[in-house]
């Protein structure tokens, strides 16, 4: 928006009266003096004439900046000190403690203190001996990627997960609004009905799900015999038509995964291309953050498969299959 000086406003009025109030005519003439883009519009001219007739003043009244009554240096300092002492306190609670409205408090946090709310991340606790093992694995993986940029696409990551029938609460998306705290909670039985699922995850898609269960369809514990049966009767059949001459297989260090008899089943298929415990390439323990099943797949599937609150194990299994089947290949590759 063009702001005209006092001299320019006098010039506009002069043209106006010289043209006997014919606004459209003299606006066209003003384009010569002011330029096409800078010339005043007809509505502005009418506003200026009305302003002079009513007030006798051409200049605008100076605007006064509204004094800050809440975002004062004292309140900003109080908020900064409060955050330093208890950074995890909610805005609602901190607002009550400092007697500052939530709106003003958020403005102080974001605009004056330039702070951002960060969501806490739950990760596996690492032991001191884990760090060098993770470093060695990371170096090995980086070296392979330096040799072959597509190396990550040549790994079948694998993992098991439990899905309880009672459901999964996505606490990030679960909020209850009200004037008072309803003290809501979700009950979970000590021994819930559940299914135990295995999946393989690689650049060509998701292998599975495979459910560890008995003949009656009830979930069973994953032991060595059952794990080896899954490898022979499910995994190997799923990939028998794939070219896996340069494909690696990853599994964590669970005893049923790394027993001699289990490794004897894996080696004829993958040879020395096994990432696990007791293999040439050791998978570091407590490293859920390194496998796409843990940092992506299981959470994505649980968010979807509990949406309609399945009431039976069969319904839960169907939802798991459907949720996995809906995942697009481009999502898998980019995970």
Automatic annotation (TrEMBL):
<dbReference type="InterPro" id="IPR032135">
    <property type="entry name" value="DUF4817"/>
</dbReference>
<feature type="domain" description="DUF4817">
    <location>
        <begin position="5"/>
        <end position="58"/>
    </location>
</feature>
<dbReference type="GO" id="GO:0003676">
    <property type="term" value="F:nucleic acid binding"/>
</dbReference>
<protein>
    <submittedName>
        <fullName>Uncharacterized protein LOC111354340</fullName>
    </submittedName>
</protein>
<dbReference type="Pfam" id="PF16087">
    <property type="entry name" value="DUF4817"/>
</dbReference>
<dbReference type="InterPro" id="IPR036397">
    <property type="entry name" value="RNaseH_sf"/>
</dbReference>
